[in-house]
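Sequence design from tokenized structure. All designs in this work follow the same two-part layout: the structure record, then the generated sequence. An example of the structure record is given first.
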């Protein structure tokens, strides 16, 4: 069993120091309520900015340092995405960083940059999905636009109990966000934790939050509206195994 906290928050535009100062209390509060994994949104210390050259951090930069120190201070896991300079890539990547209480550090680079907004011109695409065992629960993190590509989820379904999708998903497409998250839970028979931001960014885009946690049947077990809020829910790998054993749909998938 893993207790997850999905932190729905506003973001001070392109100001990591201000955001980190704001989020320390969120981590402490979630940990005090028994959270074992605390997750923030996509680019949670900058907002979804295309100023990659100016904002991208080194792997030991302030955002990753915050995640690592928070994890160790509270004996939990922490995660969120950060623009990061990534060895072997032409541009920085939009990188989900997952930090553990004993110094564990895992990274997933967003495979699908959002070309509609020219993200692909500023951030390189990653190439591999990551799955990490967190307190006995197999967690696969994905980032925002990845949600629209079912194959990214399907390919790792059998080794995943819980998908964590972090985003800066605009209010104008909120129904897509909610519908796709539920679909990914249903079709993969896994928990899905969707973590989105609220507020208005530096480009004038509004965000409605709608952070949500679905169980392996696609049933909503925790949801937020459009204010800062932390969702808490238990992720039970035994429930994933039970649902998949009773309804063995994954075995019928075919590559066409």
């Amino acid at each position: 069993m893993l207790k997850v906290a999905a932190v729905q928050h506003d973001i001070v535009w392109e100001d990591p120091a201000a955001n980190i100062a704001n989020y320390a209390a969120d981590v402490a509060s979630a940990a005090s309520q028994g959270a074992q994994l605390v997750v923030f949104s996509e680019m949670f210390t900058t907002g979804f900015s295309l100023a990659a050259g100016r904002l991208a951090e080194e792997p030991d930069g302030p955002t990753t340092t915050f995640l690592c120190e928070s994890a160790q201070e509270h004996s939990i896991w922490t995660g969120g995405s950060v623009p990061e300079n990534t060895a072997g890539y032409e541009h920085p990547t939009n990188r989900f960083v997952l930090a553990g209480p004993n110094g564990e550090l895992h990274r997933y680079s967003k495979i699908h940059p959002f070309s509609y907004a020219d993200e692909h011109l500023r951030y390189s695409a990653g190439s591999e999905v990551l799955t990490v065992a967190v307190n006995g629960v197999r967690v696969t993190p994905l980032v925002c636009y990845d949600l629209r590509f079912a194959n990214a989820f399907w390919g790792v379904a059998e080794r995943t109990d819980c998908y964590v999708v972090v985003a800066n998903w605009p209010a104008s497409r909120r129904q897509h966000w909610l519908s796709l998250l539920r679909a990914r839970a249903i079709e993969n028979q896994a928990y899905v934790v969707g973590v989105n931001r609220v507020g208005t960014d530096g480009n004038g885009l509004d965000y409605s939050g709608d952070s949500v946690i679905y169980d392996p049947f696609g049933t909503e077990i925790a949801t937020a509206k459009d204010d800062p809020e932390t969702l808490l829910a238990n992720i039970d790998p035994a429930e994933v195994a039970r649902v998949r054993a009773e309804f063995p749909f994954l075995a019928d998938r075919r590559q066409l």
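The helical segments are 16-32, 52-55, 62-74, 119-122, 150-154, 174-188, 237-246. We note this feature because it recurs in several other targets discussed in the main text.
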